[in-house]
Amino acid sequence: MSERGALRVRLDRLLREIAKFGLVGGVGLLVNMAAFNLVRHTTELPVVRASILATVIAIVCNYVGFRYFAYRDRDKSGRTRELTLFLLFSLAGLVIENGVLYAATYGFGWDTPLQSNVFKFSGIAVATLFRFWSYRTWVFRALPPDPDDEAVQTAEAILERAEALEGEPSRERERAAAPRHR
After folding, report:
1. Residues 36 and 50 sit within 8 Å (Cβ to Cβ)
2. CA end-to-end span of the chain, whole Å?
3. At what angle do helices 170-177 and 150-165 cross, to 10 degrees?
């Protein structure tokens, strides 16, 4: 497999991961917004407290979706560590998400149902970027590459070839690095 092919495989994996994350996140978004509006319109809770409660419900829903769907192929050996990190990063996302709503509601006085929903959604969007990065980097870590994987073998061959060329004169290095046509 060429370098371009290996890059294509990595890009395809990332796009599949983003799609799965988006699907779970979309369900979480629906749960979050539905719970927020239900609590907001059926109780006397202030807007930010209603939002925090809805966010907690969505966090539970999202963990199940991420662990058993989006990241089911990831390392499962340290569930306590995973859950602790998930909750820690989810709490940070909760602060980001509800900080936007808090600023809009109490800083600018934007508290109509439409404004609350717009800023709740905006907060979720900002927090989602943070959550995607933190979950994939720290919580649901990728397993070490399979040594039998063709892409891994290609990458290792490229690295070995580059290391072998380091000692050769530059013209030889260019000739050896040029693609070979059969």
Report:
1. yes
2. 14
3. 160
| Percent of residues, the chain, with pLDDT higher than 70 | 80
The CA-atom distances, in angstroms, between 138 and each of 83, 86, 116, 151 are: 11, 9, 32, 24
Q: How far is C-alpha 53 from the geometric centre of its chain's CA atoms?
A: 22
Kindly state whether residue 163 falls inside one of the protein's structural domains.
no
168 has a pLDDT exceeding 60:
no
Residue 13 lies in domain: 3-139
Q: Could you tell me the two tokens for 44?
A: 């006397």
Total-model pTM: 0.72
Residue 106 belongs to a domain: yes
CB-count burial class (<10 Å; 0-12, 13-18, 19+) for 148: exposed
The pair of three-digit structure tokens given for residue 87, joined into one six-digit string: 């909750």
